[in-house]
Write a structure and sequence with these properties.
Number of helices: 5
Largest sheet: 2 strands, antiparallel
Structural class: mainly alpha
Strand content: 5-15%
Radius of gyration: 14 Å
Distance between the termini: 28 Å
Order of helices and strands: HHHEHHEEE
Helix content: 25-40%
């Protein structure tokens, strides 16, 4: 299935519009770094190899407290993918799991 098809499927499933853009790997890294300067993140994804670098620079921040307060179920995620979102033992999107939240 194409990314466009997946996006449309997610939009129907979640009832929200999803905007996505494709970048070269170098441009994606630059976009993530630029995004870290914004008051609110606009990203939901980051390549796993960059998690340590981005977390160390506080471009990705811990999500442990947010996850603890939510209905998060680790069983909904592939174990290896979830393990890759850890930095120094914590889970990390921006603002660890490490990751990016608006």
């Amino acid at each position: 299935m194409t990314l466009y098809g997946l996006r449309r499927q997610f939009e129907m499933m979640f009832g929200v519009q999803i905007a996505s853009r494709a970048f070269s790997i170098d441009r994606l890294r630059a976009e993530i770094i630029e995004n870290a300067e914004l008051p609110a993140s606009k990203y939901l994804a980051c390549d796993f190899p960059w998690f340590g670098e981005m977390a160390a620079a506080r471009r990705l921040l811990p999500l442990d407290d947010l996850i603890a307060e939510s209905c998060f179920d680790a069983a909904d995620f592939h174990g290896d993918a979830l393990a890759n979102t850890r930095y120094r033992g914590r889970l990390s999107p921006r603002r660890t799991r490490y990751g990016s939240i608006p």
